[in-house]
Amino acid sequence: MKTRIVKRPHLSFAERIYLPAILSGMRQTIRHFFGVVRDVLHWKEKSTAITMQYPEERWDFKDNFRGAPALVRDQHGREKCVACQICEFVCPPKAITIWPAEFEEGNKIEKYADRFEIDMLRCIYCGYCEEACPEEAIFLVKEAELVHTDKQSFVHDKGKLFEMGGIREDRILKWQNK
Amino acid sequence: MSLWDILGKFLHVLLVAGVGLTLLAAFLVWAERRVSAFIQDRLGPNRVGPAGLLQPIADLLKFIFKEDFSPGHVSKGLYFIAPALSLVPALLAFCVIPYARGMAIAPLNVGILIVFAISSIAVYGVTIGGWASNSKYSLLGGVRSSAQMISYELALGLSVIPVLLVVGELNMEAIVQWQLDHVWLVVPLFPAFLIFLIAGYAETNRLPFDIPEAEQELVAGYHTEYSAMKFALFFLAEYIHMITASALVVTLFFGGYHLPFVDVYPPGAWGTFLSGLVFLAKMAFFLFLFLWVRWTLPRFRYDQLMNLGWKILLPGSLILIMATAGVLVMLEAA
Questions:
Q1: Which strand (E) or helix (H) includes residue B22?
Q2: Contact between chains at B41 and A30 (C-beta distance less than 8 A)
Q3: 3-class SS letters over chain A
Q4: Looking at chain B, which residue has its C-alpha nearest residue A34?
Q5: B251 pLDDT exceeds 70?
Q6: What would the mean pLDDT of B17-46 be, rounded to a whole number?
Q7: Predicted ipTM of the assembly
Q8: Cys-Cys link to B78, which of A5, B14, B132, B200 (CB 3.0-4.6 A)?
């Protein structure tokens, strides 16, 4: 085997007493220190500190974020869900339970959800309900912090679900034009 | 000495050790956490009180309410004495330091010697704590600490001798007075200051010399088996050691309470107060330096530590003593 002789680097006096290296290291740390000091005193836009002040600052979720499922209304305030129960059937962990009810004669839509419950302790945030819904009535919204102190509160009822979903613009409004 | 003198002294001690040093140490814990956070691009504790300033109180409450647990395998008597043995010398060493004009708890003629005599006792707190815990981590921490502190005490003591040679007195007040009259001793004796600072870091078990409690290898070193207030005492002792070390550096090399270009403080209590503030400001810088260095340098390996202490700092300080003596003799002859 061929031997390669690696020459040890010759250290200058400054390198051997370490102090210049230590000083340059200290310059580096103090730069970061004053960077955060500037951030804390709001001398300029937050630039160095990477800490997120949690309850005040929140994550900026992307639009396709899969948070908690919620029901939506269209721009006229109509509940879009027609209680077809496809989401209930497709839901892998069986988190969704729907009690459908019928409209009286004359309504274009036959059914509505009398009660609509999603058990968030079962929900796996897979998004199948959103995918399956033919009416674009259920969406996974950007809500990711569900904290309750008892099991019962984790079952989101219809009111809670509509409150979370809010209003979503519907460009087609198929029931109006039928 | 009348009864009033004794009472006044007692009050003085209570104010300095019980209120001043303890508050400063508590504040230092907060500063440590925030400075370390800033250096690592974080924010640190900023919730409790304005800018997190009340964090030490929250910490203290936590320490008080924690279970004061002592493991069954410890050697009981020593285990209980060790935290106190670690804290008391730290507080005692401060007594000779003139922290403001004419203000030292004990303005002794042997000043600096008392500091070294007392700070040597501090080794016992750590070593006994490590021994009494009857755990291998603690024992290793204690053993390392005693080896380290004994090694660096030599360099620490010897690096002060040039100062004493120049000033010609052991009294701390006299050392400060000399610097008031002439020049800060860091100027003529910079190498001595450097050795004193490095050895001081080792004596206080601070990074880069914190191998007695090297977390990665020894969990927490000598205080692994301690909890609640007993741990808090060790903790407090470490910070008060830092304060004492900074105060010593300021007194010996940076003119104590002397403010450059402003030679005299106004007479009376006002001037004394101002001089105390100046001392505090200088001390704050060196306390900051402790934190700054901690978050810059990695820990020394054990053999590197011993090499530095015995092969560089000790001969270095000896050479320095001879050089200083030589220069002084030449100046005398000239």
A1: helix B22-39
A2: no
A3: CCCCCCCCCCCCHHHHCCHHHHHHHHHHHHHHHHHHHHHHCCCCCCCCCCCCCCCCCCCCCCCCCCCCEEECECCCCCECCCCCCHHHHHCCCCCEEEEEEECCCCCCCCEEEEEEEEECCCCCCCCHHHHHCCCCCEEECCCCCCCCCCHHHHEECHHHHHHHHCECCCCCCCCCCC
A4: B38
A5: yes
A6: 86
A7: 0.77
A8: B132
Closest by alpha carbon to B291, among B40, B36, B26? Answer: B36
Examine the pLDDT at B38 and tell me if it is beyond 80.
yes
Tell how far CA B169 is from the center of its chain. 22
The long-range contacts involving B260-267, CB below 8 angstroms and separated by at least 24 positions, are: B260/B184, B263/B180, B265/B101
**Which residues in chain A show pLDDT less than 70?**
44, 46
Q: Which residues of B touch A40 (CB under 8 A)?
A: 38, 43, 46
In this predicted structure, the answer to whether residue B10 has a pLDDT above a threshold of 90 is no
Partner-chain contact B296 A53, CB within 8 Å: no
The β-bridge relationship of strands A111-119 and A155-156 is: antiparallel
Asked whether A115 and A158 are in contact (CB, 8 A), the reply is yes
A17 to chain B nearest CA, in Å? Answer: 10
Check B43 against A37: CB less than 8 A apart.
no
The answer to whether the CB of B292 falls within 8 A of the CB of A29 is yes
B106 three-class SS = coil
pTM over 0.90: no
What six digits make up the tokens of A75? 């721009």
How many Cβ atoms sit within 10 Å of the Cβ of residue B10? 10
Which pLDDT does position A96 carry in this prediction? 92
Q: Is a pLDDT exceeding 80 seen at residue B195?
A: yes
Q: Which amino acid is at B155?
A: A
| Residue B270 pLDDT > 80 | no
Disruptive mutation site among A28, A33, A54 for chain B (greatest number of B CBs within 10 Å) = A33
Distance from C-alpha of B278 to C-alpha of B273, rounded to nearest angstrom: 9
- Could you tell me the strand order of the sheet in which A155-156 lies? A96-102, A111-119, A155-156
User: Does A29 contact B35 at a Cβ distance shorter than 8 Å?
Assistant: no
- Whole-number mean pLDDT of chain B? 84
- Mutation pick from B39, B195, B292 vs chain A, by most beta carbons of A within 10 Å, is B39
Side chain identity at B196, as an amino acid letter? F
pLDDT, residue B142, reads: 84
Nearest Cα neighbor of A135 from A168, A164, A160 is: A168
